[in-house]
Amino acid sequence: MKPIQVGLLGLGNVGGGVYEVLRRNQEEIQRRAGRGIEVAMVSRRDVAKARAMVGHTAQVVADPRAVIANPDIDIVVELIGGYDLARELVLEAIAAGKHVVTANKALLAMHGTEIFAAAHAKGVMVAFEAAVAGGIPIIKALREGLTANRIEWIAGIINGTTNFILSEMRDKGLDFGVVLKEAQRLGYAEADPTFDIEGVDAAHKLTLMSSIAFGIPVQFGKAYTEGITQLSSIDIRYAEQLGYRIKLLGVTKRTSAGIELRVHPCLVPSKRLIANVEGPMNAVLVQADAVGTTLYYGKGAGSEPTASAVIADLVDITRLHTADPQNRVPHLAFQPDAMSDLAVLPMSEVVTSFYLRLRVADEAGVLTKVTGLLAAGGISIDAVLQREADQVGGEGATSTDLIILTHDVKEGAMNEVIAQMQALPSVLAPITRIRKEELN
Amino acid sequence: MKPIQVGLLGLGNVGGGVYEVLRRNQEEIQRRAGRGIEVAMVSRRDVAKARAMVGHTAQVVADPRAVIANPDIDIVVELIGGYDLARELVLEAIAAGKHVVTANKALLAMHGTEIFAAAHAKGVMVAFEAAVAGGIPIIKALREGLTANRIEWIAGIINGTTNFILSEMRDKGLDFGVVLKEAQRLGYAEADPTFDIEGVDAAHKLTLMSSIAFGIPVQFGKAYTEGITQLSSIDIRYAEQLGYRIKLLGVTKRTSAGIELRVHPCLVPSKRLIANVEGPMNAVLVQADAVGTTLYYGKGAGSEPTASAVIADLVDITRLHTADPQNRVPHLAFQPDAMSDLAVLPMSEVVTSFYLRLRVADEAGVLTKVTGLLAAGGISIDAVLQREADQVGGEGATSTDLIILTHDVKEGAMNEVIAQMQALPSVLAPITRIRKEELN
């Protein structure tokens, strides 16, 4: 049987990995897929560079549209990234009746609804395992492995750059800026790290997981995104003393009021497996009604881990493209006509517990005032940690750190009380507040 | 569209869970599957008990063959367990053109080759996600999620009973017998716990994972199986002091010489995530060439976790039964005509490192003699731990524990040296030897 003909749009880090792994494991992959899978054509602006990588094993062109126009190509793999051109090319490939595989989380988080609708209408598959958590088959687990369940929540470490930075800050007691430079030197962070450190990349991935977990449309615009740039190593140390680690989590949860969709730094109990996921590794924790808790761990980025996910999609398409399109696995796990319109909650409605650090004057009655405000706001306290006073500035004036862990409270109510605390004369600096999840 | 009609053979703990979860999550499951999934018929010897569970929502019969004979049934779910009758019923269901879902690891480990061949010839699916690691979608991950990879090894905690016992022995410093009774009281161990504590259940599951990871036939007869009944809490304590936990692992590895297929207690570095999987939880660690290390964690048993896996298979069949049978996901991940004949290695050929505990007379030169034998056998030492001498018996005779961690060595060579050590007059008791895996 003629091998499935694959066209790669883009032959950079991931594209090169896809080409290399398909070549290296060709025999093993064919034994699984029942049919050869062959990169027949690649597009890259720098044709010479592409030619150097693939030699004459594949046709090389500069124009990605030449790949889409090639009638021999069965599956188009979009690896050029970005929004506009990628969107056009994916829609053109679908219109041309090609199955599409993409690792482009940004594209799908922004334009997924349009793209999946076009694919459904045309009866082709758009697969995107590589778009979330790299080589971890988490899309497959959510879309196919847990179909019996009512999924309750997902909490994931889904950005390796920020997890590496937080691990280093904790291990070495260094501050964010220092570690970011190291991460850039080691290649764990890009020259412009904004998407990673501000949580945007994690929010793209979380948006896709939320959609397939709860059967809601892809709506990145409604995701709350808070990065790690404001974290200081002192909070990591205090958290440690209280039995917690600080991780950048993507959390999406189904509540009676609506869907939570949020990325932010978070205290997690040190004893949880996910709290012990260090360095650039990723992990996704899923809570569902029948199976209970499951966790999926692995490399979230890199050439070959990402290629592993892209090729898994190629094998799925090879195995299943003969299925009646109405009976295939739906792109977003739920049938297009059976999506839910559960609203995404504003953060003020989201309920979590909190870690608060207040820099206060070391004088009688401060704790009473602070806890009084919490009580008046109906917020109960889980734990208090007060450090010994230390000298700051002259005149023997002393101040101290007051750390408070709260029980669950609506974020809106918490913010009001924080504003009241901030107004106290004995509170000497901006209050630090980090959300906390017990994940049980 | 008419719901898929499911017939359950057996309505005990798992069958009840399947019925309950299908009922409770009916709407959500249909939104995913694109079609209703309905338990139309159940068989149980005690018809009254079955009737009490399903009321009049399903037809209830005593004879499982009446379910297979029912032309309206699309999928037969085998949940009666055991070998002979289960084998007959599954083969009869296949012959009748039904798709089959089973949670019966013992059946597949023993008769899988025959059953999958029959299913392939008939063009029906036999799905068995529930047979390995309960609710964790590990079969799907290996068979579909990692298809790009050359899988190198799998190491799993795939028996909850033994992991619970080992966790308790470690936490409470209790001995095996005591904890086993507690596990039986709590329902974590059966009245006859042999299959669990002797590693047979784990070996059944490992045999299936090995087959789909490496594309080899299911061959339980060649699995090496060693349980936890001989473990003493003192070895758990010594291992802890050396930075290790003791787990019952199922390990299958592809080497140039052949396939390792073995279940036995094992020292694992405490810092590995899998070493921190406690209580009845399961976890499977997979090493593959492109993706690197991935780990899958969750409940390995129980009514609803197992039902979660059974129903995932029902949804897969509902979604994909229209695919050309030659193009569906192969039962054992590899195409039937592309299986490998890699031989399973005898244990004497297996290479691991070892933990050795020798009870020796507290006299000069013992360590020299022992290490001399290791050196002569070409076995290098990773670490030595010698306890202070303690009084045993009268006459002021004293003895002490000598703990040795070796580097990698062939098991055959290790056994020869252990026999030589055992023959030393200063070695006062049978030598304890536990294999060790660094899992990196």
From TrEMBL, chains A, B:
Binding site for NADP(+): 9-16
Superkingdom in the source lineage: Bacteria
One Pfam assignment: Homoserine_dh
Active-site annotation: 205 (proton donor)
Residues that hold L-homoserine according to the record: 190
GO molecular function: homoserine dehydrogenase activity; NADP binding
EC number annotated for this UniProt entry: 1.1.1.3
Enzyme class: oxidoreductase
CDD domains in alphabetical order: ACT_HSDH-Hom
Positions of NADPH binding: 105
Keyword field: Amino-acid biosynthesis, Methionine biosynthesis, NADP, Oxidoreductase, Threonine biosynthesis
Recorded metabolic or biological pathway in which this protein acts: Amino-acid biosynthesis; L-methionine biosynthesis via de novo pathway; L-homoserine from L-aspartate: step 3/3; Amino-acid biosynthesis; L-threonine biosynthesis; L-threonine from L-aspartate: step 3/5
Domain ACT residues, every copy: 355-436
Biological process terms in GO annotation: methionine biosynthetic process; threonine biosynthetic process
InterPro entries attached to this UniProt entry: ACT-like_dom_sf, ACT_dom, Asp/hSer_DH_NAD-bd, HDH, HDH_cat, HDH_CS, NAD(P)-bd_dom_sf
PANTHER family in the record: HOMOSERINE DEHYDROGENASE (PTHR43331)
Family named by the database record: Belongs to the homoserine dehydrogenase family.
Name used for this protein in its record: Homoserine dehydrogenase
Organism for this UniProt entry: Hydrogenophaga crassostreae
Lineage: Bacteria, Pseudomonadati, Pseudomonadota, Betaproteobacteria, Burkholderiales
